[in-house]
Amino acid sequence: MTTPGTTPNTTPPPAGTPRAPEVTRATRAHSFNAAAAQYAANRPSYPPALLDAVEELAGRPLAGSRVVDVGAGTGIATALLHARGADVIAVEPGAGMAAEFRRTLPDVPVLRGSGNALPLADHSADLLTYAQAWHWTDPDPDRAVPEALRVLRPGGALALWWNTAALDVPWIAAAADRVDRHFGLALSAQQRDVGARTAGPAGLLDFVHRTVRWSRRVPLDTHLANLGSRSVFLTDGEDRGAAFLAEERRHLLADFPDGVVEETYDVRLLLARAPATA
């Protein structure tokens, strides 16, 4: 799923810019179901170095491990875990996303459920992963973190990660600022703070942080479709979103006249091990 975003921006949008109506967190979370094919076709994957870091910090190889990929969406991360030899079960709450998952990964089981109530037995997983998904769970001390600890085997690990825009790259910073001003939200600041804000209740788990930088070169149409698959765009209204993306195309063609965009990401990984004894 997408990066979180509902904190008000202290910089108001330009005068005369119509604001989108307030949208609930639940509406944003469910917005992906109608755009599952767009999400699957255009969202970035993750670099091999990320999975190397997961194995290092978890202290075990993915091959042969029982892994539960929660909030699996269309299966972008699940496919990588499966290719590494993990015994993967996916958990996804959305009907549209789950249907796309089954289309692309027919041999991997996907269960309907969420991180707040996992449809799994106690101490049944070596690793729980949340790719772009932890911010949709409830980090309340009585919900997502204890539920993860219930399902993890002693000594197992909880791994959370997000592809975040590399805001030290000038064109990416400028593009992020345009998105912030369009929505009147501090989305780029939230990406910078994603680890600190979403790690969960203090004291229950001790997270280790790792950042992996990577990039991909994609056609401009793919870049814009990726941008348009974010929940804030999916709930912004079709006309407003289309107008913004048309203007964004003009901006980006000035930076990438050949129509190929180099997207640079910092994958923010947080990993914590469960206690060695139940």
What is shown here, in short?
This protein has 278 residues and is an alpha/beta fold.
Textual characterization of the structure:
- With 278 residues, the protein is of the alpha/beta class.
- Helices cover 38% and strands 22% of the residues.
- It has helices at residues 25-30, 36-42, 48-58, 76-83, 95-104, 144-151, 170-183, 187-192, 194-198, 220-228, 231-234, 238-255, and strands at residues 66-70, 87-92, 110-112, 125-131, 152-165, 208-219, 260-273.
- Strand 2, helix 5 (95-104) and strand 3 form a beta-alpha-beta unit.
- Helix 2 packs across helix 10 (220-228), helix 7 (170-183) runs antiparallel to helix 12 and helix 10 packs antiparallel against helix 12.
- Mean pLDDT is 86; it is low at 1-20.
Cα separation of the termini: 31 Å
Pairing-aware structural class of the strands and helices? Answer: alpha/beta
Helix content: 25-40%
The major beta sheet can be summarized as: 7 strands, mixed
Indicate the radius of gyration in whole angstroms.
19 Å
The largest sheet has its strands arranged as 3-2-1-4-5-7-6
Mean residue pLDDT: 86
Which residues sit in consecutive blocks of at least 5 with pLDDT less than 50?
A: 1-20
What's the count of strands? 7
Beta-strand residue percentage? 15-25%
The total count of helices amounts to 12
Annotation keywords:
alpha/beta, 12 helices, seven-stranded mixed β-sheet, disordered N terminus, 278 residues
Give me the secondary-structure topology.
Blueprint: H1 25-30, H2 36-42, H3 48-58, E1 66-70, H4 76-83, E2 87-92, H5 95-104, E3 110-112, E4 125-131, H6 144-151, E5 152-165, H7 170-183, H8 187-192, H9 194-198, E6 208-219, H10 220-228, H11 231-234, H12 238-255, E7 260-273
Parallel strand pairs: 1-2, 1-4, 2-3, 4-5
Antiparallel strand pairs: 5-7, 6-7
Helix pairs in contact: 2-10, 7-12, 10-12
